[in-house]
Amino acid sequence: MAEISDELIRLERCAEEERAKLAGLTGEAYEAQRERWRRASENVRSAIARHAEATGRSREAVEGDVQKAARRADEDPAE
Q: Which of 17, 25, 37, 56 is exposed most, by the fewest CB atoms within 10 A?
């Protein structure tokens, strides 16, 4: 696995935290939280794409490494 920056890990964790907050929500609260998750996901995808381009690696490879690195933490925010 290639070196993954703390910023990419932070962005991935943020997106996962926003996704986890969807649990149990309905109606407007769900839609508002889904939009926060969408924005966070878009942020991490954009950062991954920039990193992939800068390093000459595939976006998929970088994304996989970011997800693995983010989940190696003591606690997975999505659980």
A: 56
